[in-house]
UniProtKB/TrEMBL annotation, chain A:
UniProt cross-references to Pfam families, sorted A to Z: HisG
Annotated function: Catalyzes the condensation of ATP and 5-phosphoribose 1-diphosphate to form N'-(5'-phosphoribosyl)-ATP (PR-ATP). Has a crucial role in the pathway because the rate of histidine biosynthesis seems to be controlled primarily by regulation of HisG enzymatic activity.
Protein name as annotated: ATP phosphoribosyltransferase
Keywords: Amino-acid biosynthesis, Glycosyltransferase, Histidine biosynthesis, Transferase
From TrEMBL, chain B:
Class II Histidinyl-tRNA synthetase (HisRS)-like catalytic core domain mapped to chain residues: 12-198, 221-347
GO molecular function: glycosyltransferase activity; histidine-tRNA ligase activity
Entry binding sites for L-histidine: D66, F67, T68, R93, Q107, E111, R300, Y305, Y306
Domain of life the protein comes from: Bacteria
NCBIfam families found in the cross-reference section: PRK12295.1-5
Keywords annotated in UniProt: Glycosyltransferase, Transferase
UniProt signal peptide: none
One Pfam family it belongs to: tRNA-synt_His
Membrane-spanning intervals of the chain: none
Gene Ontology cellular component list: cytoplasm
InterPro entries: aa-tRNA-synth_II/BPL/LPL, HisRS-like_core, HisRS/HisZ
GO biological process, one term: histidyl-tRNA aminoacylation
Organism: Primorskyibacter flagellatus
UniProt protein name: ATP phosphoribosyltransferase regulatory subunit
Length: 230, 362
């Protein structure tokens, strides 16, 4: 058996993860054709690279099928109940920065904070007969945040992509999504509420608290973490 | 999670029989409930607490998180008056914050729909639960959301501000923030000040998108301008409200304390008369009111549909356990679900499984 390291299978997140490990003497690379999801690890023994979607890495860590995994803190906190009992943050990797925020139409000049959002939601519900809709894919994080903030008369509607377009398309009144530069929000005539983000996220190396480790895996894991300086 | 044991089921049957003896008619309701009604009542929070499932033909369904709502619906569509109902069955609750707690457990309930003497009905339900649970030596807690609502209703401030506070009675943090704002204790944010000063606030608003119309935005700005002209809520009124919220005594002392506060907040007098009548009714039913605790803030965080008397029974020395029984008055819920009709209603539920854990039952 080997230590399984999960890394996002695509794009910049994968490349930057490869760079981060490479700088520490652990070379991750893809093998086979451009489209094949297989990879290898050089510079340390007994470690297997598993390429998979960043969104699935939290679940695989919690199930103990990965020993280590790189994914966003937003995904870990959204998908894992009591996340800190299931995984441990080993290192913030310094890229993949994104804030989970609540945004409303820029034309809502009367809404700048949660207090305003709550008051607007109350009036909206009375006027339209349904709760103010907030489009998001981060249901748990957003619900917890709005409950803690004492916001009522809203409902979450699921949006798995192009969330910024939902307001213009009249399927939601506001959104909660991740943003790094805010450009897409501005292009869609949305503004961020001023209370500060729900969560600041970045790519992070997590260790599973559930994964079983025999003697050989313990040794390989220690060797890998030593090499990474963790 | 564990399936209710035979001991728990026997205990549920015992309670059900006890409640039938007390005059209740046995009723049942579906495990799957249409989610729409519950979502409309409780809002998004219920999704975090209940199991919602999708049915392409019937829409979203919910595994019943309680019996009260379906029982009220049943009564409001043709129940005879007065009515007493009892039921026993599983309810289902997600436990994200307490994974060690059961997500499926048996509730046995008793609900009273009776116009004649609501205070006597409050006492009837409490005394019945008190008797049913007596061997366990539980600690009873009581409160009255009605007193708090009367206090808010009686504040010397605009109707809009009173409505905003009333809407957040069950969210203490937001309630406090609003109170601070209305009392002029929290500073006006710069963005708000600029908005109120602006000649035409919508001039630089950019493209109008979404369902919320420019008229709705203007209406809120107008409301904010009017609100800014209102004089702040007086320190004396805030202090009186805080004093109400802080009352935590045995019933007779709580009543005395609240009567003192009513000198500055006379609007609560009617609610206090009801409290006094309830204490008498409890006394008549043999409850030791001299030692019965009363807490004015009790029930503010977890019992959103209660609007009067509230109570709970707790196992002393077991803070890890949820209350063994909870209940209260929910007149407003009958109004919400009654399509114009309404009836005073009070009731409660016992968690039969906890009785077994505490060494009770047969």
């Amino acid at each position: 058996m080997t230590v399984k390291l999960g890394v996002p299978s695509k794009g910049r997140l994968m490349e930057k993860t490869f760079d981060w490990f490479g700088e520490r003497g652990v070379t991750l690379s893809r093998t086979g054709s451009e489209r094949e999801y297989s990879g290898k690890v050089d510079g340390v023994d007994g470690v297997q690279l598993v390429l998979l979607s960043a969104g699935e890495i939290p679940r695989e860590l919690a199930a103990g099928r990965l020993h280590l995994g790189v994914t966003g803190t937003d995904l870990v906190r959204e998908k894992l109940v009591q996340w800190d009992q299931q995984v441990e943050e080993m290192a913030a990797l310094g890229f993949g920065f994104a804030d989970l925020i609540v945004a409303v139409p820029s034309c809502w000049v009367d809404v700048d904070c949660l207090d305003d959002l709550d008051a607007a939601a109350s009036a909206f519900r009375a006027e339209h007969g349904h709760r103010l809709r907030i489009a998001t894919k981060y249901h748990r994080l957003v619900r917890d945040y709005l409950r803690a903030g004492g916001v009522a008369d809203y409902q979450l509607v699921d949006s798995q992509g192009a969330t910024e377009g939902t307001v213009k398309n009249l399927t939601a009144e506001a959104i909660a999504d991740i943003t790094s530069t805010g450009e897409t929000l501005r292009a869609n005539h949305l503004k961020i509420l001023g209370d500060g983000p729900i969560l600041r996220s970045q790519a992070t190396l997590f260790r599973s608290r559930k994964a079983q480790k025999a003697v050989a895996e313990r040794a390989a894991l220690k060797q890998l973490l030593d090499k990474l300086g963790l | 999670m564990s399936v209710p044991s035979s001991v728990t089921r026997a205990e549920a049957a015992r309670l059900l029989a006890l409640f039938e003896q007390a005059g209740a008619q046995r009723v049942d309701c579906g495990i799957l409930q249409p989610a729409e009604v519950l979502l409309d009542l409780y809002g998004e929070d219920i999704r975090g607490r209940a199991y919602v499932t999708q049915d392409p033909s019937r829409g979203e369904q919910m595994l019943r998180p309680d019996f009260t709502v379906p029982v009220v619906q049943m009564h409001m569509t043709g129940g005879a008056e007065p009515a007493r109902y009892t039921y026993a069955g599983e309810v289902f609750r997600r436990q994200e914050d307490h994974p060690e707690r059961e997500n499926e457990y048996i509730q046995v309930g008793y609900e009273v729909f009776d116009r004649v003497d609501p205070d006597a009905a409050d006492a009837e339900v409490f005394a019945l639960f008190h008797t049913a649970l007596a061997p366990l030596g539980l600690h009873p807690a009581t409160g009255d959301i009605g007193i708090l609502m009367a206090a808010v209703e009686g504040l010397d401030t605009s109707a809009r501000r009173r409505a905003a506070l009333m809407r957040h009675i069950w969210r203490p943090r937001r309630f406090r923030a609003l109170l601070d704002r209305f009392a002029g204790r929290s500073p006006v944010p710069a963005s708000r000040a600029a908005l109120l000063r602006a000649e035409d606030a919508l001039a630089d608003a950019g493209p109008m998108i979404g369902l919320r119309s420019p008229a709705e935005i203007s209406a809120r700005i107008e409301a904010l301008r009017e609100d800014a002209q209102d004089r702040p809520l007086s320190e004396a009124q805030v202090a009186a409200l805080d004093a109400v919220l802080a009352v935590r005594e045995t019933c007779p002392f709580a009543l005395e304390r609240l009567r003192d506060i009513a000198v500055d907040l006379p609007a609560i007098s009617g609610a206090l008369d009801r409290f006094a009548r309830r204490i008498d009714a409890l006394d008549k039913r043999g409850i030791d009111i001299e030692h019965l605790d009363f807490e004015a803030s009790y029930g503010r965080t977890s019992m959103e549909y209660y609007d009067g008397f509230v109570f709970g029974f707790y196992a002393a020395g077991r803070p890890d356990l949820p209350p063994v029984a909870t209940g209260g008055r929910y007149d407003a819920l009958t109004r919400r679900l009654g399509n114009g009709a309404e009836i005073p209603a009070v009731g409660g539920v016992i968690r039969a499984g906890l009785i077994e854990i505490l060494g009770g039952g047969q």
